[in-house]
Amino acid sequence: MTDLALEKTAAAAPHRASPALLGIGALLIVAYGVLPLVASEYLFDAILTPFLALALAGLGLNILTGYAGQVSLGSSAFMAVGAYAAYNLALRLPGVPFLVDILLAGLVAAAVGLLFGLPSLRLRGFYLAVSTLAAQFFVQWVFNKVGWFSNNSPSGIVTVPPLSVAGLPLDSSAGRYLFALGVVTAVTLAVWRLVESPTGRALVALRDHETAARVIGIPVLRVKLLAFAVSSFIIGVAGVLWAFAYLRTVEPAGFNLDRSFQILFIVIIGGLASLRGAFLGAALIVVFPLLLSRLGEALLGGLFDSGVLEMSQRIVLGLLIVTFLIAEPAGLAALLDRLWNRAWNWISGRFRRTG
Amino acid sequence: MSRPNTRTLSLRAALLGALLGTAALLPAAAQADEQYFPLQSYRVGPYAAGGTGFFGGFIDYLTLVNTRDGGVNGVKLTWDECETQYEVERGVECYKRQKNRPGVAAWNPLSVGIAYAMIDDVGRDKVPLITVNHGRTDSTDGRVFKYVFPLLLNPYSESSGIVNYIGTREGGLEKLKGKKIVVLYHGSPYGKETIPIYQLLAEKYGFSVEQVEVPHPGNEQQSQWLSIRRTKPDYVVLRGWGVMNPVALKTAQKVGFPADRIIGNVWSNSEEDVIPAGDAAKGYTAITTQASGADYPVLQEIAKTVYGAGKGNLDDKKRIGSVYHNLGIVNGILNVEAVRIAQDKFGKRTLTGDEVRWGFEHLRLDPARVEALGAKGLFHSINVSVANHEGEGRVTFQQWDGAKWKVVSDWIAPDWALLRPIIEKSSLAYAAEHGIQVRDPAAEDASN
After folding, report:
1. Cβ <8 Å between B52 and A15
2. C-beta separation of B96 from A45 below 8 A
3. Mind listing the pLDDT tens digit for each residue in B272-291?
4. Using CA atoms, how far apart are residues B74 and B350, in angstroms rounded to an integer?
5. What is the DSSP letter of B304?
6. CB neighbourhood size of A35 (10 A)
7. Per the CB < 8 Å rule, is A23 touching B83?
8. What is the 3-state secondary structure (H, E, C) of B236-268?
9. What CATH number was assigned to the domain covering residues A2-256?
10. Which residue of B lies nearest to A339 if distances are taken between CA atoms?
11. Is the dihedral of CA B378, B381, B384, B389 positive or negative?
């Protein structure tokens, strides 16, 4: 699929105009115009906002893993860096507008990402994955150990200040959702520009064949570090959304290895090197367990206790993921493409026959 | 990735549709005169032992009240469970899901992380949040945290209670002077929370304290215990969690530190903490707010009425009367009595969350009332007020004899007066940070 992605990037440029843009437009109208009016607090706080934060984290990791081919198991560490940085900025520099805080928090995460990206200059594949694991453990340990980061809160869990942008309070569920949506839209747009740019192609070249990339004059070291920095920046911003828009509390335990794996799975299940993939993967990871658990409870709630139900849901979820991946190893994005094409051929075939 | 999105749209629409569809499957609105307890329980995951015991006990008591008394003054108690696995995000999702059912009495997540994530919301939704024996220490100050109740014991009181107990064992608090205590704590925010409190107590009573961290999960403690052997402390306080507890006891035995000089805290006090340590746990003593055992009248009734009718919640009947089960039962008593007290004021009907909050703020169970509830000896008493959401819970200490816990102390009162200024400093800072108006208890009591 690697060559394919390259081709697609190049080939897609001319005809990305009408239907795709229309689709995005419709999606944005629903997300900005319709959902805030009709959705319930449950939909916002339990589904949409965590979906947006995780999708953004997936997008960030996709740059590093999907586009540039560097495996990382430290994503949730960078989320934690973003979240704690934003908390401390908001706490210690009260005059600074929150949007600037987010940018700065992203930059702090990018700096930490650069630091832990350095081994990538020497290591690749599994070895790199193991060294990013160090980031995961180190960052969590530091936030646990150094009380300053959590303002010496006795329990080590901090409550973030209420969200407000430019004096406009966004503390309601809908407000926090819209805020997250705005940030995700802006970052996604920027990432889209990036991957379509020569830099984006340099990332793909690096992934597909490092030596070849070097030969055609791509500054491999710089591009690698850039991938780490940009990816950590975005994941850091996702951490800010996680802490400020979703949970409104920050604790080191919330950013553990499980979360890193979750983000990696989002990218793999959704589709590597695909912007849609991050969103599809996040949708699956966030929504699917909830759907299953609601369904399980509604159908069998009276018969079994919640522990048994939960266990069986895990089995079902695992089976489904395996099925998805067997059906389409390139992820949900590719699976949908295929289904769409098939449907389209069928429809157009019909039309041709009748016409 | 460049030809998206009509498909993404249709997928999202489909997901949304499916979601709304399942939402419609939710139980319809409750009938009149029911009081609903949403349970964010955890029966799966690393903390399942605590979760099954606690929520089992809670449900058993609610079942007892329903079958024996037909509810509280005729108002039936209902509940349902939402599995959190002790994870914050799942707890939040459960909160948003369960709060839509009418007649919510109180929330009891038994998880600090989940409780923290709910503090804003319970204030907005005006429903009490109960964190029995744990939780955010400064929420003891009900003037700031109107809807949060760390009933019976917060982490600070726990530390003070442990030191007071060591004092009684030495023959008086003044005998603590010159003694040496090591606190072995779990390397987590929870474990570190009481570091300044032990320092404070050490200064006050003149003992020296050394606080040693065990990194999570704590299944290797050789170096910590070797250093403890060098220090030769008079007591070791075990502030553990999960697997760290039995490993501590076993390693102590290996380095020759006597188990009866190890004092466990509230999360190191259960059967699940000592049984895996086998022989090494014999003589180990731990703090508790609720004695264990199944001899108390209320437990006898649960065994007869609830388990006798096959309606018990625990799978393993041997766990009846265990530490977590009894904590769940005591928590059930506190919740039910708060509803009863609120009903006396507002009427015998389904109450709003805010009315139940009033009930918790007037939850006063003296030893006589506790005896009438069949819980004499199970727990001592509680005295909650607007300003004090902890309620002056007493603690007792139990020693593990190799087969069961045996109470070895009186009911001990922590030094609340010493701790109150620290709590208020923190709660007032929170109030300032979040723009909360500090309540005036005298005025509230006058208006009620």
Report:
1. no
2. yes
3. 999 999 999 999 999 999 99
4. 10
5. I
6. 18
7. no
8. EEEECCCCHHHHHHHHHHHHCCCHHHEEECHHH
9. 1.10.3470
10. B7
11. negative
ipTM attached to this prediction: 0.82
Q: Summarize pLDDT for A316-347 with one digit per residue, the tens.
A: 888 888 888 888 888 888 888 888 888 888 88
Q: Measured in whole angstroms, how far is the alpha carbon of residue B364 from the centre of its chain?
A: 18
- pTM, rounded to two decimals: 0.86
Coil, strand or helix: which one is A38? helix
How many helices (H) and strands (E) chain A has is answered by 16, 4
Which secondary structure element, helix H or strand E, spans residue A312, and what is its range?
helix A306-327
Which of A23, A46, A162 minimises the CB distance to B93? A46
First to last CA, chain B: 63
Q: Which of residues 387-416 of B touch A (CB under 8 A)?
A: none
Mutating which of A189, A306, A314, A337 best tests the B interface, going by the most B Cβ atoms within 10 A?
A: A306
Rounded distance, CA B94 to CA B53, Å? 20
Q: What is the mean pLDDT of chain B?
A: 91
Distance CA B289, CA B291 (A): 7
pLDDT given for residue A32 in this prediction:
94
Distance CA B425, CA B441 (A): 17
Length of chain B: 448
CA distance B100 to chain A (A): 9
Looking at the complex, does the CB of residue B168 fall below 8 Å from at least one CB of chain A? Answer: no
Q: In chain B, positions 12-51, which contact chain A (CB-CB < 8 Å)?
A: 12, 15, 18-19, 22-23, 25-26, 41, 43-44, 48
How far is CA B110 from each of CA A350, B77, B169, B193, B267, rounded to the nearest angstrom? 60, 20, 31, 17, 12
Is there a contact between A8 and B426 if contact means CB atoms under 8 Å apart?
Answer: no
**Structural domains for chain B:** 34-153+293-383+423-447 (3.40.50.2300), 155-288+398-413 (3.40.50.2300)
Q: Tokens 């098939």 — which residue?
A: A342
